[in-house]
Amino acid sequence: MVDTMALLPPFIRAARTAKAPARVARPVPGLPADDEVLLDAPDDRLGPALVAAGRGEHGPAAALLAATRALGEWELRDRYVVRLAFFAHSRPEWFEEWRTAAPHDPDALLVGAQLAVDRAWGSPARQELLREVSPAITATARGDHRDPVPWRLALDHARGSRAGHKYFGELWEAAVRRAPHHYGCHVAALRYLAASWHGSHRECFDFADRAAQDAPEDSLVQALPVRAAFAYLTDGCGPVVPRARLDAAADRAVALSARFPAADPWPAQIRNLLAWVLVRLDRRADALDQLRLTGPYATSFPWDRAGEDPLGLFLRVRAGLLAGAAAVDVGGRGHPHRGHGGPARSADH
Description:
The protein is mainly α and 349 residues long. Helix content is 59%, strand content 1%.
């Protein structure tokens, strides 16, 4: 197990819309045509559960999450919980039936806690509503002692309720004790650092680099530095981060991307994020390589940070790269060398 103390210091230090492009008439070699690109497409396991939920049936979703828990598939479990809660936000009937039929089901409790946090996050009374959600998160954490996903949710909850560094550090230690390299927990911690010490991008990079260095080469945590780069490139506060550090973060994510098969939904969000960062760094050939590897799988994050049409921006950026445009705008603010710009929206909330 990785030494958690190597990851804790950042938490205990003192704080200091545009129109979519025209459709491509013919496919470009190595790239799907525009009308073949899918936004936030589920994988082969989640897809049938969502289809069944659309019919009002909760059984496949319950079976899916039970399987991830039994097999210890924590990264998949985290993704599926987020997607199922998002679906339940607009189509709650199937979930309410599940919760009524199995009120103590740990998987239903976890989806319910995620849904409650998501609903609270968009409210002007966020902190008050998040306090009301605390018992639900506590209940999920009492389930499988191996499961880090309730602790990822607790970390997100702590950020939203503006918890202090000491309390967050205790949650973080509990999370990494269960899964030292769980990507969702690391992203939650990075967001907390960014929110707590606005503009302290070097501290965020220190945390991300240290976590990536300690993680296996095929761990999604290898992409954590490029998330720190994204936060820096969409934020205008704090001292300059050297260009070499931004490039190193991108290079680490490029190496991770190469470990996964092309046109696979599993690494799609990392590849979309990496392409965004590479465009901002004016590394266009590398960005186009990532879009080829992404294939038909566009993801809302990070393209939704520039407006309400993430698929349109994805396609416009891709078209600009293919055409060799003089400038390709991904909607980021600031300059990769200077770090000036407006505030960023947090990654998923």
